[in-house]
Design goal:
The complex is a heterodimer. Chain A is α+β, with helices and mostly antiparallel strands. Helix content of chain A is about 30%, strand content about 30%. A seven-stranded antiparallel sheet of chain A has the order 15-23-22-21-20-19-16, with no helix packed on it. Chain B has one domain: Rossmann fold (3-Layer(aba) Sandwich), CATH 3.40.50. Classes of the chains: A alpha+beta, B alpha/beta.
């Protein structure tokens, strides 16, 4: 069981901005930090005036007329944060940065030293408060992900007891997973909280969302903590990039390690591992430099690794010894996994996982010919009618996770199912021996024996048949309720059909040929 | 030795000669082209006991037969595409053992179907298509060359020039349904496979829907088929 403490300094980009400019800005000034045209962070005063994350510049100005605006600068965020972490680390060694404003530490050591989890948290927070971070908060829980959520839960110190991660996470919105696409999709499907997401079957989640989705699913279930001891990452997964001549500009270094970062992640994925702690070494031409372990609440992807390298480089300039070693530029960057998690036991399916590149290429070419919706993948969803049970998703899109697929659907058709299912039932006609159309008499009784059915424009004799089986949909809602009857017939050619009688009209719902 | 057996033996010799390159015949598939798996009931009717890559196979409109042909390859991880068949029954296919994660659907290719099939054959091993128009011999030959080059198999719902074999459903027999009662339970059907390589059509019965039965063994295979098989192997 890995108990973990997360320290959170809210609105860090604003704090970093204020600290970088010197304390010339009054505490109660409304400040917003923007990326492009959208607010990414704002000060308390701005929030009180109604400014929110994601808001557009003009809207933010309208809410808070005296608003001061600054552009986002991840380098500034890192430069200001890393020295703070280094100072706290003197109290509690092993503090790892998740991202500027957020840091994590295994709590076992400090808890023993300070006589409990709460005293340890209070000690660290007290130190931060003394440094001028009055709003610092702490969360303690099983695993980093849960601890981060606890830190964000408004109390200065929030402790989630051992084994209660799932219960604590249950009511938190799915946006907390930090994967906007997944969260949007889940909300569309009516899955709004981590508890609801956790309730989906792990196999289904892996099928639909691939290993990354499965990993988030495990986090949402509070299973971040099941890992007893971090697995020792295989050393060959480390990657090293040498620059000759050394690179002095952060952008160049970031660009230079992009490929290595992708290989690093691919190597992990090939072993079904997700990197949760990453050691980055930046080495100058004469040795020395900067070494740091970064943590991630879910797992590092290539872009996240590039960001960390850049942040570490920005932070190194604030530390005299590192700055000196790297004064001539960076000669070597080494990436090594410090801790890894297994990501799912099964072979990844078609989705989100590893797909044969060539197949993807061919299908993308067909999409170029026919349009995005021209190439589809299919899965079986819920519902009573055959056509609605088929879920078609454009190639390359994530198929919607459907909680209803595994549910029993009373009134759905027993196997064998028809291999031919028209997207809309095909209108047809069924007549009795005397040539008159066959109808329902009352609720579930047929007014005559079906003798002939029209197939492809000509009537065929019905040799065997059974029905009617009532098909009632939305039975709980009188306005939306649909009522139809199903029949199976075998015609004189030996072909079998699934027929539908609805509102007095016959149609072909499926063909068994 | 009967006449029929003699003819079959000669055919087998000619085929062997063609395969080993002693008789050149343009447009033939390489002898070492891999054969994709088929369900055992179908395998014993097909000229190569499976789907010979590089070849085209003509089928009727039976969705159940197409599903049966896709089940074994997709379950073995082989990629398949279904083109121009919007009513392909996904759930029935899954129940028949088709791995839906290995199937790409192009339900409405319109008049671009040939271009689509050509693009898919680049890297998808089995492409099933219902052509929405006639195909000329020249176009079919071009596609055949692509199939051979890429080791792909074409399954066509309809007529096709230069097909390796033609598979047709003959007598279907349903059980489970009566006059106003029961439930469709199982369908067995006769399959006739005609190939220019094997001479006389081979016939067998397969379970087209419902549970397969152990009762379907070689006794369902007509005697002339057994003869043909014995000679075709050598």
């Amino acid at each position: 069981m890995e108990r973990c403490l997360v320290l959170w300094l809210p609105d860090w980009p604003v704090t970093a901005l204020v600290r970088a400019r010197g304390s010339t800005v009054p505490d109660d000034a409304p400040i917003a930090v923007l990326a492009g045209n959208a607010v990414v962070a704002c000060s308390q005063a701005a929030r009180r005036a109604g400014v929110r994350r994601g808001m557009r510049r003009r809207d933010a100005h309208a809410r808070a007329p005296g608003l001061r605006i600054a552009a986002e600068d991840p380098g500034r965020d890192a430069r200001e944060f890393l020295p703070v972490v280094d100072r706290v680390e003197r109290l509690a060694p092993g503090l790892q940065i998740i991202r500027p404003g957020l840091a994590a530490i295994r709590i076992r050591g400090p808890a023993r030293y300070y006589g409990g989890e709460l005293p340890a948290a209070e000690e660290l927070l007290g130190h931060l408060h003394a440094e001028g971070f009055a709003e610092a908060m702490a969360g303690i829980a099983d695993g980093r992900f849960t601890a981060e959520q606890a830190a964000r839960s408004a109390a200065p110190v929030r402790i989630v007891p051992v084994g209660e991660a799932a219960a604590f996470l249950g009511p938190i919105p799915v946006e907390a997973l930090g994967d906007d696409d997944l969260a949007r999709l889940l909300v569309q499907l009516g899955v709004r909280t981590l508890g609801e997401f956790a309730a989906l079957g792990a196999d289904h989640v892996l099928d639909r969302f691939g290993p990354p989705g499965a990993h988030l699913h495990a986090l949402a279930s509070g299973r971040d903590s099941r890992r007893v001891a971090p697995r020792e990452p295989p050393p060959e997964l480390a990657r090293e990039v040498a620059f000759e001549p050394p690179l002095a500009i952060a952008d160049q270094v970031a660009f230079g390690i992009r490929v290595a970062a992708e290989e690093f992640v691919a190597g992990l994925v090939a072993r079904r591992l997700a990197c949760t702690e990453l050691r980055i070494e930046l080495i100058g031409p004469d040795g020395g430099g900067s070494e740091r372990v970064w943590a991630h609440t879910s797992s590092f992807d290539a872009a996240a690794i590039v960001d960390r390298v850049r942040w570490q480089l920005d932070g190194a300039s604030a530390d005299a010894r590192s700055a000196e070693a790297l004064a001539e530029g960076v000669a070597t960057v080494r990436l090594a996994p410090e801790a890894v998690d297994p990501i799912g036991e099964h072979e990844p399916g078609l989705f989100g996982g590893v797909t044969d590149e060539r197949v993807h290429h061919a299908l993308s070419r067909v999409q170029a010919i026919l349009g995005h919706r021209g190439v589809l993948t299919a899965s079986v969803g819920g519902g009573r009618r055959l056509a609605e049970r088929t879920v078609l998703t454009p190639w390359g899109d994530r198929p919607p996770a459907r909680a209803d697929a595994g549910r029993p659907w009373p009134g759905s058709l027993p196997p064998p199912l028809p291999p031919l299912v028209p997207r809309d039932p095909i209108p047809t006609a069924v007549e009795g021996e005397d040539g008159s159309p066959v109808r329902m008499m009352d609720r579930d009784r047929l007014g005559g024996r079906p003798a002939r059915v029209r197939i492809d424009g000509a009537f065929r004799r019905i040799v065997e048949w059974a029905g009617p089986w009532p098909l009632i949909e939305h039975g709980w809602d009188p306005t939306a309720m649909r009522r139809a009857h199903r029949f199976q017939v075998v015609d004189e050619t030996g072909s079998a059909w699934l027929l539908l009688l609805e509102d007095g009209g016959w149609s072909i719902e499926g063909g068994y040929d | 030795m009967t006449n029929a057996a003699e003819v079959a033996q000669l055919r087998a010799r000619i085929e062997h000669a063609e395969r080993t390159g002693r008789i050149g015949r343009s447009g033939r598939i390489a002898a070492d082209a891999p054969v994709l798996p088929a369900a055992p009931e179908l395998a014993r009717l097909l000229p190569d006991r499976g789907l010979r890559t590089g070849g085209a196979y003509a089928l009727g409109r039976s969705g159940a037969l197409l599903t049966a042909l896709l089940a074994a390859p997709s379950a073995a991880g082989i990629w398949c595409a279904v083109v121009g068949i919007p009513e392909f029954g996904v759930e029935a296919a899954r129940d028949a053992g088709v791995d839906l994660a290995r199937i790409a659907f192009v339900p409405d290719p319109g008049d671009r179907w040939l271009a689509v099939v050509g693009a898919l054959a680049e890297s998808i091993s089995i492409v099933a298509v219902r052509p929405s128009g006639r195909v000329g011999d020249a176009e079919a030959a071009r596609l055949a060359a692509r199939l051979r080059e890429r080791n792909a198999v074409l399954l066509v719902q309809g007529a096709w020039p230069l097909a390796e074999a033609r598979l047709e459903i003959e007598r279907r027999e349903w059980t489970g349904l009566g006059a106003g009662h029961g439930l469709l339970e199982r369908c067995t059907a006769g399959v006739r496979v005609t190939s220019r390589r094997t001479g006389a059509p081979r016939r067998g019965r397969i379970v087209l829907a419902g549970r397969p039965s152990v009762a379907l063994g070689t006794r369902d295979v007509l005697p002339d088929l057994q003869d043909a098989q014995l000679t075709a192997v050598g």
